UniProtKB/TrEMBL annotation:
This is Hydrolase. The keyword Protein transport does not apply. The keyword RNA-binding does not apply. GO terms for molecular function: hydrolase activity.
Length: 250
């Protein structure tokens, strides 16, 4: 069972969820390049200019650890990274758990992504000019749960620990990506986990992902915010366990 973290995070973000599966699965946690304990010297701007570079890393990691027929659990941008990895190497994963996924953050004709192009440009410009200020402003909004400020503080600190140059490039890669076409042809069973309120990936996005994955289930949580793995781990665990216990109901 492979756990992949979202933008500005590291594998520590799974500390409340992954242990629940350690008895049944061999659990694998890792840091994307530029995050946590990753080797910053291994970063290549061309390779990571698209999410395919990160997906290639997942494939290489899993092949190196002899993963077959596993479960991939990806949060936020890692949900789409997992989709890409599963299509590159279908034998790796029988199941994909997509936590607050979004194939495209920009609104488009007939598609609600949650952001207009000027909003994305403003977000990226702010990050380019003031990484620390961006982290302090954005992390609490992304986390939600204003009544639990310690959660926003943890995400702020996580954002601030990421390498700022890599974070700027990863943000551009993430927020300007369009992976809607990649939802077609996914062979694995998929669970889409959607928070009831999420400023990054609203409910319309989760419903879109569910509709366009041929073999998927949608779990709408009572939890709010973009990081239910931190804010509502018990509910997140329960949704994953229910999915893994039974066949897809479509």
């Amino acid at each position: 069972m492979v756990f992949a973290h979202g933008f500005g995070c590291d594998q520590n973000m799974w500390r409340f969820v992954a242990p629940a599966f350690e008895e049944r699965y061999r659990t694998i946690l890792f840091d994307h390049i530029g995050a946590g304990g990753s080797d910053l010297a291994a970063y290549d701007a061309d390779r990571y200019a698209s999410l395919d570079g990160y997906a290639d890393d997942v494939v290489a990691l899993c092949r190196g650890l002899s993963v077959t027929g596993g479960v991939f659990v990806g949060h936020s941008v890692s949900a789409m990274i997992g989709i890409l990895a599963a299509k590159k190497a279908p034998q790796l994963f029988d199941s994909l758990v997509l936590v607050c996924p979004s194939p495209r953050y920009l609104d488009d004709d007939g598609y609600v992504g949650g952001f207009t192009r000027p909003q994305i440009d403003e977000l990226l410009d702010f990050l380019d000019t003031n990484h620390m200020g961006w982290s302090q402003a954005m992390a609490p909004a992304i986390m939600g749960n204003a009544d639990r400020p310690e959660l926003g503080e943890e995400l702020t600190n996580s954002f601030c620990r990421t390498d700022p140059d890599i974070a700027k490039r990863f943000a551009r890669t993430t927020f300007l990506a369009d992976n809607r076409a990649d939802l077609a042809g996914v062979e694995a069973r998929c669970l889409v986990i959607q928070s009831s309120e999420d400023v990054i990936a609203p409910q319309e996005v989760g419903a879109y992902v569910h509709r366009h994955l041929a073999n998927s289930e949608l779990a709408l949580l009572d939890a709010t915010g973009h990081c239910p793995n931190l804010s509502a781990p018990a509910e997140t665990i329960a949704a994953i366990q229910a999915f893994l216990r039974g066949p897809s109901r479509g």
